[in-house]
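We include the pair:
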Amino acid sequence: MRAPSRGAALRGLAAAAVVVALAAAAWASVQVYRAEHLIAGVTLENLEKAVRLVPHSSHAWARLGTLRETRGDGEGATAALERAIALHRYNAGAWIDLGLHWEMAGDPGRAEQHLLEAVRVDGTFQPRWALANHYARRQTPEKFWPAIRAAIACNRFDPFPAFELCWRVSEDPDEILERAIPGQQEVHRRYFQYLSNAGRTTAAGRVWQRLEGRLERRDLPGAFAYLDSLLASRQTDEAMRVWNGLVQQDLIPHGLLLPEQGRVLTNGQFRHQPSGRAFDWGIPKAPGISGDVEVVPGASQLRLRFDGTHPESTELLSQQVPVLARQSYRLGFSYLTSGLPAETGLSWAVYDAASASPLAAGETLRATLDQWRRSGLAFQSPSQTRLVKVLLRYRRAAGTTRAEGSLALRDVELSAAEEPTVPARRPRASRR
């Protein structure tokens, strides 16, 4: 048998070395896998095993330090977090946790030093957010405002908690806007949405002034929330200004509202499905009743359908309408019924939007026998009234049943009368 050549022997040694190296790598990967599995277990025992398995894992030491802190072991937490940082100086989470440790230990100077280092090694949102919160807790506004502004500027996710923190530090909307809110359009858009949702109407108005000249369709939900809050607080003139701005930028398919020119009603021809927002028609949801716009030859109409299970009394359609004070108006409309009893139980009414006091109530509509009928009612706005609610309602008439059928509406108009008009019938009390 021939002895192996020198080359073959070297190749054999090399192969053996590769096998050893692969075995070592495999063992290391197994250790890392076991360590990660232990870290995921989040128990003190598992984390201590993990750092023994992978003593050079900054992540494992940081998790161990955090858990020791929650267990009240401040000295052990400090040692573990400092070890995590020594292994990886760019572990911002460890810097943050160590900063929070020193803050809880009553050493704000050292806490600030570590939080600033977290920002230095990682300038993203989380370290800046931790630093801003530290300044908020320490009540140091001269440092808080620059920190929170920088945090908001780099936040790509949900800035609402940062906005909320600003309002906890200060309730001055001008101070927050000038010192905390960066100048980016997208940040203004998100801040405006936050203020509208929170019902901070006055503050939202200041942000709206920065937004309104550069609006996009995605701004409409925030704009409608703002409009609804303006109407709820009876800021009718500002609501009309905002609405007209949306119209002029072709963001909503409706007309301008100009009470001085008699243009006060929206979507009276029902060319668009009622949205229930701001000055548009709203169809309150009631069981057994549905409403949809139908396009018919030469016109469009709103059809309300009743399936016989509807309530005995409910609102069907309503709109908030800006009016002039001490002005006489007439509401006109065309309607067609199908399948409803002669006493339909349908009627129109007008209320003062601020006080909910009734201004006029129309007679109960009679069934039309498949022919369109024109009807209406008149009212006069009181001296302090700038906004009224026009309402179509249903109340089952005595001696009738809740029949299946429908009501179609078109050509709803609200026009100013030349001479003061006394309503034909004024309700005694609100029956909404």
Q: What stands out?
A: Residues 14-233 form a domain with the Serine Threonine Protein Phosphatase 5, Tetratricopeptide repeat fold (CATH 1.25.40.10). The two ends are 111 Å apart (CA to CA).
